[in-house]
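<instruction>
Derive structure tokens from the sequence
<data>
Labelled lines for chain and fold
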Amino acid sequence: MSQEEQGAGNKRKLNANMMGKLLVITVLMFGFGYALVPIYKQICELTGVNILTPKDISVEELSNSQIDRSRVVTVEFDANTQGPWRFRPTVASMKVHPGEMTQIVYEVVNKQSYKMDAQAIPSYAPQQAASYFKKMECFCFKQQTLEPNEARQMPVMFYLDPALPKDVKTITLSYTFFEVGGKSQAAASKEPGKS
């Protein structure tokens, strides 16, 4: 066997030896990564860190402590329209506790045979209540496009700030729903067969 062949054989042995070590290290790294998950959970449980639902806590303790259950405010809902549609709340009023997340649904029906763009503008009574009425989700946040004869239910998620003055017992939320730009109506009147 020549010296070159011996050198190549040694190189192969060293390469195979290195490859074996790298494979063992890779397997150990993956095993360590998988082992970290239960170890992390155990450490978090022991230290009380990052526990989403601690054991032995009642539903009352988990509820929102910002809700003022000693007060009830009546919220009345109203709808005004400026256009050819039906627009109304699904309920006329509801009683809520300040701080409590609540949902109301408004219904709208486009009674025309063409598409319309519309926008809702809210108003509040008494006016001082506006800064305490917090909407998380509302159809009034953006323009609505209604297809011909489309009926749609649109939710409003809100809560009343617990800092609402104690003398406010009733709040009226009123929406005015009107057509934006009148572009849809103008386009519909230009269609063939319409005058």
Notes: The chain has two domains: 1-55, 73-182. The two ends are 103 Å apart (CA to CA).
